[in-house]
Automatic annotation (TrEMBL):
Gene3D superfamilies, per the entry: D-Amino Acid Oxidase, subunit A, domain 2, FAD/NAD(P)-binding domain
Ranges of residues in domain FAD dependent oxidoreductase: 43-406
Protein name: FAD-dependent oxidoreductase
Domain of life: Bacteria
InterPro entries: FAD-dep_OxRdtase, FAD/NAD-bd_sf
Cellular component GO terms, alphabetical: cytoplasm
Amino acid sequence: MSPAHQQTGVRSPGFINGGVSFWYRAIGWPEPRPALPGDLDADVCIVGAGLTGLWAAHYLSQAQPDLRIVVLEREFAGFGASGRNGGWLSAELAGSRDAYAATHGQQGVVDLMRAMRGAVDEVIAVAAANGIDADIAKDGLLHVARNRAQMTRLRESVEYERRWGAGPEDFVVLSRDEMDARIRVRNSLGGLFSPHCARVQPAKLVTGLARAVEAGGVTIYEQTTVTDIRQGRAVTDRGSVRAPVILRCLEGFTATIPGQRRNWLPMNSSMIVTQPLPKAALEKIGWEGAELLGDYAHGYMYAQRTADNRIALGGRGIPYRYGSAIDDRGATQEWTVNALTALMHDMFPDSRDVPIDHAWCGVLGVPRDWTATVDFDRSTGMGTAGGYVGSGLTTTNLAGHTLADLVLGRDTALTRLPWVGRRVRQWEPEPLRWLGVQGMYALYRTADRMENEKNTPRTSPLARLANAITGR
């Protein structure tokens, strides 16, 4: 049996795999809201009570308080990626900037990047105004390079960002010593710092936003499964909601709606979290601030130090389930738990004796060109937003705000952003999409291994091949 398939690391006596996420385990389950009581009429019906739908409801109700807004949710508000993610409130843009620039030019992309940075502060401001305590700390984002090829990509990324309008204050290259002064990662060669990121406890944010939206007059019906979305109607197992505006805000769960299986592929991402680190381990790791941490590997990782001094670390495990299937309430594969644990121990050797407390996974929406979309068809009253490719915590705010402006018929800076109205071709039918995704990540994992072994400054051709095949 290979090391990746062996049980790795110490696990706490109360270790849980699944159960939606550790974030909910930490705060307790939200009180269930009533199901849809039967057929009813509304002005706006939003399908999906994740962050996209809740942000759209927030901005619609703030702009026009007399709107009858109904949000429908199969489980509970924040059940999906909104309550399972890594807690990166970052300005990282989902998708290909070249794809956005093809329709709106370089300035359109610069405007979108600027809007993303503004959305980070917007989320923080809305949380403060509504008394949402989500462990928010804006200490920025660090990406570490751990071999020569990653260091090359780090330097290339700075040049790339500056071509798209970033200033010297937006991305700062750190030497190995400067990186170590913030977080000591084994084999670090240096890092890149951006101030445009805040740590968040995801479940606290989404449950707090749901309460704020309800206080603004929006009705959320949970335990209600939408079985079909049509012009002017959302059909559920509890009745139908008739509304001139129907917004589909399902992100990775879009494939659960009839006819949508090939539109946005539900890609899996998984996380583990330790028990609180003892003082001695924290001192050796040196992670005193609330910086978020990523890397330049192709099979990338993302991490945060939680408010109670745990390390929560995530990455791709088994990236895709055949037929666009969804996980079982966050349960992830043993292989994935072991792989993430091994990665954390490799990066932070002083975490080896700290038990793993919880593991979980969730799905994120991936369009065929890996580029996000916000769309509203005024002639049909139907709209959607998603395809955030794992960079959704901030993006949901900007997308939801943009959807609200589109619904209200406003001509604003948001409605002119280049992701509005994009059309993307569908994913291939099975088994082609399963084979494609599995092959892509096999290439990325092999590329990472080769770069570590050969210590070359060049990115592996296998990674470039994977990018070319998938259209990333």
